[in-house]
Amino acid sequence: MESRLRFLNAPKDHFFLLGPRGTGKTWWCQQTFPEALRVDLLEPETLRLLSARPERLREQIEARPGLRQVVVDEVQKLPELLEVAHLMIEEKRGTQFIFTGSSARKLRRSGVNLLGGRAAQVSLHPYMAAELGERFHLAEALRLGMLPVVYGAQEPEALIRAYNGLYLQQEVQQEALVRNVGSFARFLEAISFSHAAVLNLANVARECQVNRKTVEGFLGVLEDLLLAYRLPVFSRRARRELAAHPKFFYFDTGVFRANRPTGPLDATAEVQGAALEGLVAQHLRAWCDYSTGGHRLYYWQTRSQTEVDFVIYGDSGIFAIEVKNTSQIRPEDLRGLNNFGEDYPESRRVFLYRGSDRLLRDGILCLSCEEFLHSLVPNQFPSSNLSKSC
What we know:
The protein contains 16 helices and 14 strands. The chain has helices spanning 25-32, 44-52, 56-62, 81-90, 105-111, 129-132, 138-144, 148-151, 156-173, 181-191, 201-208, 212-224, 253-259, 268-290, 335-343, 369-375; strands spanning 15-18, 37-40, 69-73, 96-101, 120-123, 197-198, 228-231, 247-250, 296-301, 307-314, 317-323, 348-353, 359-361, 364-368. The strands form three sheets. A six-stranded mixed sheet has the order 9-10-11-12-14-13, sandwiched between helices. The protein is globular, with a radius of gyration of 22 Å.
């Protein structure tokens, strides 16, 4: 994996580092904690020995006086190790525990609670454009996504196509998360049509020919594997009737493109538009997690279908962002942001498009997507120099 700056800062106490496979958790831990004892549960022999006797972890630690950090990779493979770690944390030995994981299911059911709230939870996302610097190219990101494991591959197209197979084989099948892997594979394709759109589970169930309850279970698996997420509606001090259903996103544009079928009946502009919105979404999500101030990501839609693609709410204020895969700005493109500004005059509003001009229209800062993504770094928002009263 290439050596690239990552914006994630390490907590000083124990923590869980969660993120899908390929986001660079292991590499980040090696760079951040080079002297740590590393326990890799993806190694079959390590997993076998510790499964038979979890107390072996304590023995490994006690054999290294003065050890400062212990990194347990893919801890969801053996949550029993958290019991050993919990006892050692209670003993206040001064050793920091870092647990990485690419599946939240087992941790949520048995692991995190075992530490009694003594470990924070942080997330590692795909690359942000600012982490890549000059290496970032919008067209390439829309096609292949931003996964570090893909950027470092000799054949990135082949790797991103194989990514779903990796999860189906190593996570879904081995953990017996679903009974019918074939139906789950069809679900991955069917739900790709909901990427960057309001989620209708009944339509997805009809498309992949299973009942709605099964689709709800499949979606839960997808979220547990950190491969997708739902974006809720922003409803604070709502002045209008709002939509009730969340929007759906794959966590990475490349994963979306790998699942979305394309052919003569698929409009290129439709796929590109969803990919662009998803790329902005994953950047904003990473920005929220890497920044201080408790920021959360939402979208806004009224019952009359007036929509703003993204709303960020946190200590820094309210930011409303609309994304269009177009090189021109039409008055109707700004309607959602204008309506949002009427309801939330304290908000800062940004319109992202494929043009190159930087404009200010009706108090809305209009930027090219590429400029916005390049300038998006934690604790700084590209519109921060824009007055709230504009």
